[in-house]
């Protein structure tokens, strides 16, 4: 469907998933809030039937997301990013083996642990930037993994994976590959084009983009995998609300502008932070010295707008920074128009290999000089004694 449009992603974000163009038709489709649909007799495959199976507002968002990720089948939208991850993991059989990055969204790891206890999944954590180590774990002792989970850049350490090499190596031994593309967005990286089998998104973040919706999506080129994911959504019931789907599609229209602006600002801020005397370390793939820089330059159409920052002075300095900002908002989440920051290890579920003093910054679309001035004053505020 979307492979052949030939349009740029910025244009697709504005035009995909629109109602049919005919005289008198609305330009923007209204949300359809019905829980059921008129029908009788044997169900036809093309009728929606009931609100847990289908909804016209999902269809529009699913078409738009598929066009952006260049997927051959419509996306499957879910109630949250976690519901999307859960649905994608349902392709792994009970007792199966999954290889997953050491640094990935913290609840991805927690869900896999839970599935380990309940369904006997074997989970192996790896440094996703170390291609040889990842592929050795995928091959195992002659018993290849069922699924390689990839996140790139990773949350919150911003490691960059060599996606084409990982897909080729995993497929060579029959291992499927799923990619959490939340941080990059389809503006910056389209994993299906690198051969990935499944892509998941926390639509909550950049795609919806306005910090007013929790939603997820799964994408694939393969009809059988899509059927599996849809069956999981219908049976487990983690469906998207039509109102949330409508808000997400509305937010998606400005994705290109938001991503371009916020990642340009992130590169400026990362460079200035790296020079600041109160800063110990900055992680952002735009920095020439960053471990992910070369790979991101080769594989991605941008460097994203999340920054990892370790101020001098340890946890106290990190907490003081978060408390001293006035324009930036101390809050979890990312990818919205507002700039947010938080110390990640405040969560007990965050990986113990993430430094205690790491502050994750999500750069929004405010003026970059205002963002810098606020960070500068906050870095100069001394931590309180105690
Ligand atoms: C937030 C996030 C998720 C979880 O998505 P929710 O919409 O919060 O359920 C998954 N992966 C990444 C990379 C995230 O940042």
From TrEMBL:
Its cofactor is pyridoxal 5'-phosphate. Pfam families: Cys_Met_Meta_PP. The keyword Protease does not apply. Gene3D superfamilies: Aspartate Aminotransferase, domain 1, Type I PLP-dependent aspartate aminotransferase-like (Major domain). Keywords: Pyridoxal phosphate, Transferase. Residues 1-54 are annotated as: Disordered. One of its GO terms (molecular function) is transferase activity. InterPro entries: Cys/Met-Metab_PyrdxlP-dep_enz, PyrdxlP-dep_Trfase, PyrdxlP-dep_Trfase_major, PyrdxlP-dep_Trfase_small. Belongs to the trans-sulfuration enzymes family. PANTHER family: CYSTATHIONINE GAMMA-LYASE-RELATED, TRANS-SULFURATION ENZYME FAMILY MEMBER. This is PLP-dependent transferase. It comes from Actinotalea lenta. The lineage of its organism: Bacteria, Bacillati, Actinomycetota, Actinomycetes, Micrococcales.
